[in-house]
Amino acid sequence: MGEVIPNLKLFLFLLFLSLIILLADTLTLLNLPKKLIFYITNPVSFGIYTTRQKLGKQFYFIFAARFAAQENKALKEQVGKLIAENAEIRKKLSENETLLSQEKHLDPQTFNLLSARPIGLSRYLKIDKGFSSGIKTGQVVVFEDNYVGKVKTAGGESATVELLTDPDSKVSVFTLNKEGKAKGILMGQFGTELLLDKILHEEKVASGDLVYSEGMEGFLPRGLILGSVNEVLDRENEIFKQAKVKPIFDIGDLDLVFVILE
Amino acid sequence: MKKLIIILTIAAFLQTTVIPIDLILLILICRAYIKSEKSNLYLAFAFGLLVGHLNLAPFGIISLIYLTFVAVTQALSRLRLAGNPLLIVPVVFVYASLDQLMSSVFMHETMEFSRIIISASLSLPLLYLIRLWEERFIVQKEIKLKYKR
Questions:
Q1: What is the CATH number of domain A113-163+254-262?
Q2: CA nearest neighbour of A146 among A134, A164, A161, A128
Q3: pTM of the entire structure?
Q4: A159-163 and A146-154: which strand pairing?
Q5: A5 touches chain B (CB under 8 A)
Q6: What ipTM is given for this predicted complex?
Q7: Cα torsion for A72, A77, A80, A81, to the nearest 10°?
């Protein structure tokens, strides 16, 4: 047996000793020495434990920072998507409101209106509908009761609109106030102002009067608002009176315009 | 030996506070597998008492377990099969399982199979580490040859 298990005597002795200690502990004879040993071991264990906690916190900070960075990136993407979605919803809401408002001003049963979005503005206004949607050259573009311009060229999926302020634009108009009516021709000027020309001296026109379309061009319905009189230029030596007219709204602010197809 | 005692003391505190693996048992088994010495039994007895105390286990029970495992390992190390260092893996696996089983019986602890796997996988690198330590860094006693004229 001694050859199979080396140091058998020592092994048996220590085994026996362990059993005696176990028995003594079971009989609570070792409480005092155990208590004394705890005075030494407890601070050491506590020190190791707190060191581990501190180290753990340091490592946790690294993991947390990494996790926070990933989460931040994901949230930014989410916010970006939500902003885009929100913008799309707002745009659609605005378009719907505009459509409803337009129906109040021009009866859809009388006028066949096609909504179009402005997609560019320089000399001409560019809209996102073209001849594939039924747009033809010369058709009128309106917003509510206001005249915006007429279609100058129509591409497949876009068209350009000649604005009222364009120097090539000439429209027969009339103004209306309590004292009477004045007729003239509204011409575009370079810039944002319009010039109302060929007004007879005896006709009454005053600052603030609204300017309406006469409808003599054929393509243009009568009664659309083109602007308001800003200043009357009444010179005795001239055959006709003139008036400066300013548009009611800024074209650049429009989200949606309407093309009168028929 | 002093260095080994310091390492074992640190390991005892670590295994009872931070690392949930029986490091003392692992080191003692690996050492007993390499060297069959009396000191292994003394260490098993002493550190069994310390680990038992730190684990709040009945005093002496872990000494009994460690002593038995070390003695059996020393016996196994004499076998020819022990020449293959890979044998340490199943040996540690069996010991760790028995250790867990006894802990569950005497200390009412739930058995954790993951600890057994980790102990078994750590045994081989630890064996090589201790072998390196014992062969390269422990000064051996001078061998004196006696001859008769």
A1: 2.40.10.340
A2: A164
A3: 0.52
A4: antiparallel
A5: yes
A6: 0.82
A7: -140
